[in-house]
Design goal:
The structure is a homotetramer of 146-residue chains. Chain A has 146 residues and is an alpha+beta fold. Chain A has helices at 33-50, 133-139; strands spanning 14-19, 62-72, 81-91, 95-104, 112-121. Chain A has a 5-stranded antiparallel sheet, covered by helices on one side.
Chain lengths: 146, 146, 146, 146
């Protein structure tokens, strides 16, 4: 099981600073595996809100997570200061795949890389619905430069 | 993005009962995405300890998680009573891939399916080391019946 | 700072079984201080729902926590099986104080004791409102026998 | 149950910036009660490490929490930016009581106020031991100016 090469900062399009907490470390003295996803969640939500996407409240855009994943390259944990890099690997009619790199301090290489595959659903029926143009425009800022 | 068919209980080899908590639900009223991994962690750890594997303390087996993932088929959350099903998809020289299905109440189909790819490492050097025979024998109980 | 004597099981009126999780332990190898409150929350919520109190959804009773506290008598943590004991120390017009004891395995003495002071508030205005008679009757099951 | 007046920033001696996370909010849409303690923990630990106290690793100072508490004055939650204020209410031979105020954004009044009563214990025996002079000197920076 060869570990893949870790992504560099330049491969991401937006960045969010993240703080670790005392309780993030489990009894192995490093960040618990589940906590990485909680940080991915936070980074993506903060970026979406900072870019005008309404993801809270009754009229909010409801992006359902259908799949998530994480590759752990190097151990991190409290009290590390972290930076999350964000990029879009796919932007479909009603879904997207966002990839997140987690960087420790000033490190150029990601200590962890994860993704969320999300589908925009109707708030009442939970059925997939097309991503509105304005939202698509915002999300496409995270697409790779071609 | 078509959702894959959810796994059935029969495809798993061991089961662990899991409890949800009030704080597991996020403001969407369902279990937060990261919490699923925390439940996978708990199910696997409990099974390992119940089967005599020493995963805590200074002389413990140290299985490093190199990759994790989760597919979310149906929403679950507090106060659901859950059952985790466990099976091994791969058992290599120093690594394995364990798959976990999360079942809500008496449901026959998994509400979520996840995995951990783990490598046994030396406690001091953190380098991969072969899984000892006794440990391999225990873990192989989770392999599919052929 | 002398530690107070720990409460016995007999001093509580209702009991809820609780499960610990791998991630509950922090790097000291014992349950993180904050997790105790999460378990108190869960025990009280489960008891309220099992006794017919509607604490979720748009028409739910909304009990706001105005104060909480916890005394830690003995260390507990994953993989301990726990039992929470519940009792009411005060039942006022619109508020109550519930006390929770956390017992490890079959131990007769609480490993931790906590409380929540809660006020019933209006769902729209968040102003205190009188506890309805039916709810008061349910909660009074947790009052000490006199 | 009258809510006490909230503490002002001026009554604290040191400050730590804290970040909220998506998963901090429970299904009421505000920060879960237990998460406040996790933030107190983090603020105190960061301050201790920034001031040279060794609280991690095998030779670390081990401050055991014997009691904690929190008064909730106003609701906070993700995505609020928070500041924790720290002060010492008591510094004894082997114990202290640290009080923490949690401030939302630029607010002058604490949204929540909590405390930890902690005892310095021997790493092997867990018995109380006197706080060393150098540590006492560091901690006394958090005592009120007289």
């Amino acid at each position: 099981m060869k570990r893949p090469a870790a992504a560099n900062r330049e491969s991401f399009r937006a960045f969010v600073s993240l703080q670790t907490r005392w309780a993030d470390n489990d009894e192995y003295g490093h960040m618990n595996n589940a906590t990485y996803l909680s940080l991915f969640d936070t980074a993506l939500s903060l970026w979406q809100m900072q870019n005008g996407l309404d993801i809270r409240g009754p009229q909010a855009l409801r992006f359902l997570v259908v799949e998530s994943g994480c590759k752990y390259h190097a151990e991190i944990g409290f009290p590390d200061a972290l930076t999350a890099g964000l990029r879009l690997a796919h932007l479909g009619t009603s879904s997207y795949r966002v990839e997140i790199g987690l960087f420790r301090g000033d490190s150029a290489q990601a200590a962890a890389e994860g993704f969320f595959a999300q589908v925009l659903v109707d708030n009442s029926t939970a059925s997939p619905r097309p991503i509105p143009d304005a939202v698509r425009k915002t999300l496409s800022q995270l697409l790779p430069v071609t």
